[in-house]
Amino acid sequence: MIVQRVVLNSRPGKNGVPMAENFRLEQSTIADTVQAGQVRVKTLYLSVDPYMRCRMNEDTGSDYLQPWQLSEVADGGGIGVVEESKHQNLAKGDFVTSFTWPWQTVAILDGNSLQKLVPQLVNGRLSYFLGAAGITGLTALLGIREKGHVAVGANQTMVVSGAAGACGSLAGQIGRLEGCSRVVGIAGTDEKCSILVQEMGFDAAINYKKGDVAKQLRELCPGGVDVYFDNVGGDISDAVISQMNQNSHIILCGQISQYNKDVPYPPPLPADTEKIRKEKNITRERFLVLNYMDKQEASVLQLCQWIQEGKLKVRETVVEGLANIGAAFQSMMNGGNIGKQIVSVSK
Ligand SMILES: NC(=O)c1ccc[n+]([C@@H]2O[C@H](COP(=O)([O-])OP(=O)(O)OC[C@H]3O[C@@H](n4cnc5c(N)ncnc54)[C@H](OP(=O)(O)O)[C@@H]3O)[C@@H](O)[C@H]2O)c1
């Protein structure tokens, strides 16, 4: 059978900016028959995520991430529908997902590598399983629960960077649901800031491309910052840390502003910021959602319940067509997305 797939065409280099041209669409063939234990799936949705930037390097810098190989099909979070099954637990028409879904229109996969999805849990919005009810939602929820020290009634102020992105937009809302009394977001455009406040219930939002972030934080967080959900690192995080309270907590979710640089993860803080962190006894422990997968099932149910109740507002930026996945990745890395960046492959 002839299929379309997307392969890694070239590496941007450890210090390079990733471009759509780093990926290539090509035709390929898959077997006409499905073997015992396998299923043939049609791809519906693919996820593009910042961690993929590391997979474009020959050495990802992480033992849990494998590099993509040149001229080989790329992979990541994906959702599809079973077209033919020789796996005992999967049937034609089932919706399934995997963290290692090939960027391919149709694929033959090992049935044991797939998780069955229940569309009703997300009001039929299947792609949410890649975002708010998937690894993104889990990252926001478990990051807050494992590293945030958020407590109901403690009158805490949370600041979120990368706040209009996939994790950030959920983290601010979950911070509120878990008990924070004030939530302030930091994002890269006025439109994003307005969505955060008007749609997602943030108390305020700062456009970091306009004006002094530390000064605006002083005005917007008069009691200081107790919890910082950090998606970006760099200058923005230095400004937030300068406004943090004694014994406060950083949720070290990601450092996207550093991903096109050849630096270790997590990148060390500049000396003056590190001095503040130490003096104020601010925690900054590494957080990796994959270390908490024992909590996946219960946490996904919690996220789905909030979505169904309308307590968690979900935004997606959907790009149509497998051919556009490289452009979608490039755009997301440059702030083109609001909420989760999804690629719809069905059309
Ligand atoms: N720890 C974990 O287990 C885990 C799991 C998933 C994701 N993550 C991390 O969480 C972070 C957010 O991931 P996501 O999926 O939610 O991505 P995302 O926020 O949806 O997309 C990236 C966003 O980051 C912002 N950005 C890009 N470059 C920036 C820069 N130099 N300075 C400030 N902001 C910049 C852009 O928005 P602006 O317009 O605001 O610039 C962009 O839209 C990433 O660092 C990712 O690696 C960690």
TrEMBL record:
Main subcellular location of this protein, as a coarse class: cytoplasm
Enoyl reductase (ER) domain mapped to chain residues = 18-343
Entry keyword annotation includes Acetylation = yes
Q: What is its EC number?
A: 1.3.1.48
Q: Which UniProt keywords apply?
A: Acetylation, Cytoplasm, Lipid metabolism, NADP, Oxidoreductase
* Localization in the cell: Cytoplasm
Q: Which GO terms describe its cellular component?
A: cytoplasm
Highest taxon above the source species: Eukaryota
Family indicated by similarity:
Belongs to the NADP-dependent oxidoreductase L4BD family.
Describe the subunit structure: Monomer.
Q: What is this protein called?
A: Prostaglandin reductase 2
